[in-house]
Amino acid sequence: MAKKNYENLAKEIVRYIGGVENVNTLIHCATRLRFKVKNTQNVDKKKLEQLEGVITVLDSGGQIQVVIGQHVADVYDTIFEVTDLKKENQSDAVESGEKKNLLNTFMDTISGISGIYRSKKIQSE
C-alpha cells in the first residue's frame, strides 16, 4: 500500500501552531504531536481541530498536543521534511525535565484511545 502524502497537513499544522518561529521543540508519542511553543496565544486551536487528519488539540502541561492517531510518525517526519524545524533527540526532552508520572501516562493513553475511537466512529457515520 502506498504511503499517504501528508505534506499539506504538515504545512497547515505548522501554520496554525504559529509558524516555525513559534515552535521551541516538537516530539511525538504513539498518537500525538507534542509542540512546546514560545507563545500559546499564536496557536489557532480551532483551525487546527478543523484540519482533516487531526482528531483533537489539547493544551496540556505547557504543550500543545495535536492528536493525529496511528499516522502520527508519518506526519511528524513530513513536518521536518517541509519546514526548517530540527529534530530533537527525544531522550534530551526527557532529561530536560519532561518526566511523566504514572497518572499522566495513563491519561495520555486513555485520551489517545478515545480520540481514535471518536475518529473511527465519525468516519463510519
- How far from one another are the termini? 25 Å
Number of helices: 5
Indicate the overall shape: globular
Percent in helix:
40-55%
Q: Helices and strands, in N-to-C order?
A: HEEHEEHHH
Order of the strands making up the biggest sheet: 1-2-4-3
Mean pLDDT: 79
Structural category: alpha+beta
Radius of gyration based on Cα positions: 14 Å
Taking the sheet with the most strands, its summary is: 4 strands, antiparallel
Number of strands: 4
Strand content bin: 15-25%
Please mark out the parts with pLDDT under 50 across 5 or more consecutive residues, or reply none.
89-99
Write a structural description.
With 125 residues, the chain is of the alpha+beta class. It is built from five helices and four strands, in the order H-E-E-H-E-E-H-H-H. It has helices spanning 7-16, 45-50, 72-82, 90-95, 102-124; strands at 23-28, 32-37, 56-60, 63-67. The protein has a four-stranded antiparallel sheet. Strand 3 (56-60) and strand 4 form a beta hairpin. Helix 1 crosses helix 3. The protein starts with 6 loop residues before the first helix and ends with a helix. Mean pLDDT is 79; it is low at 89-99.
Task: For this entry, give a set of tags.
125 residues, 5 helices, four-stranded antiparallel sheet, single chain, alpha+beta
List the helices and strands and how they pair.
Blueprint: H1 7-16, E1 23-28, E2 32-37, H2 45-50, E3 56-60, E4 63-67, H3 72-82, H4 90-95, H5 102-124
Antiparallel strand pairs: 1-2, 2-4, 3-4
Helix pairs in contact: 1-3
